[in-house]
Amino acid sequence: MKETVIKTDKLTKRFGDFVATNEISLEVYKGEIFGFLGANGAGKTTAMRMLCGLSIPSSGQATIAGFDVYKQTEHIKKHIGYMSQKFSLYEDLTVLENIRFFGGIYGLSNADIKTKSEALLNELGLQDEAKTLVGSLPLGWKQKLSFSVAILHDPKIVFLDEPTGGVDPVTRRQFWDLIYNAADRGITIFVTTHYMDEAEYCNRISIMVDGRIQALDSPANLKKQFNASSMDEVFFELARGAKRGE
Ligand SMILES: Nc1ncnc2c1ncn2[C@@H]1O[C@H](COP(=O)(O)OP(=O)(O)OP(=O)(O)O)[C@@H](O)[C@H]1O
Predict the structure, then answer these.
(1) Would you say the ipTM is above 0.85?
(2) Whose CA is closest to 108, among 119, 122, 93, 124?
(3) Disulfide-capable partner of 69 in 62, 131, 169, 243 (CB 3.0 to 4.6 Å)?
(4) Is the CB of 70 under 6 A from ligand 1?
(5) 239 in ligand 1 pocket by Cβ < 6 Å?
């Protein structure tokens, strides 16, 4: 049976009179790769911040890894990983120092940090760069390292906010291999992206327009539903009516 790890019911965030995220309801399952799509200003980051326990909703319900978004935000933060567009790595620390630093923040033991750093450097092929300052790494490597650090503590869910901006398709594809590996290990992936090729890699996706979820299904079913040959077409069909983000 599918295990639900994210559940929202009419989750809403208002800023004054403005409804940034409007009654979104969705369920995401363990080990699933869920794409959270929407045009600029649709309300994705606002929704994601609520799901991460960083912002209290105005109304509606949500549980993340079984914890309530109103009352148990500290528990939520312990059970998730988060990677934003401006990743949180320290540019003036080396690769290894960053891994150790975040391992410490996550409360991992020294032995655990040592084992995990070696595994991580191997997986990324960064063994020779362990002592390189993160600031001098190419963007694609920073993104991969940032993702690996965000799941260092084996969280139930990792939230990725446009994790692959600004890199070429081959580097993006390599990043997605890391995502697949993490999902195979049972980590649920909740990812926002503007790249439609990445949308195709997701098990299911939702598409937000002006604060509301307008479609939610697998890429194949959405293409059928909208009689479209690509996710680009599906997205355009829905997003062209958007009032925000112009
Ligand atoms: N703190 C805030 N106060 C007022 N309005 C806000 C605040 N945060 C976000 N908004 C507004 O809410 C709307 C949704 O913003 P949000 O950043 O969630 O969109 P998004 O879908 O993540 O867009 P993008 O893809 O550009 O990051 C936007 O119109 C934005 O201006």
Answers:
(1) yes
(2) 119
(3) 62
(4) no
(5) no
pTM reported for the whole predicted model: 0.94
pLDDT in tens, 200-231: 999 999 999 999 999 999 999 999 999 999 99
**Whose CA is closest to atom 11 on ligand 1?**
20
51 lines ligand 1 (CB under 6 A): no
Question: In this structure, what DSSP letter does residue 119 have?
Answer: H
- Domain ranges, residue 166: 4-239
CATH at 80: 3.40.50.300
Cα separation of 18 and 181, whole Å? 39
In this structure, is residue 244 part of a structural domain?
no
Q: Is the CB of 182 under 6 A from ligand 1?
A: no
Which helix or strand (DSSP H or E) is residue 25 part of? strand 18-29
Residue/partner pairs of 98-107 with CB below 8 Å, 24 or more apart? 98/134, 98/145, 98/149, 99/149, 99/152, 102/149, 102/152, 103/152, 103/153, 106/152, 106/153, 107/153
Domain total in the chain: 1
The rounded distance, in Å, linking the Cα atoms of 58 and 63 is 15
pLDDT in tens, 119-169: 999 999 999 999 999 999 999 999 999 999 999 999 999 999 999 988 888
Ligand 1 mean position to 6 CA, how many Å? 22
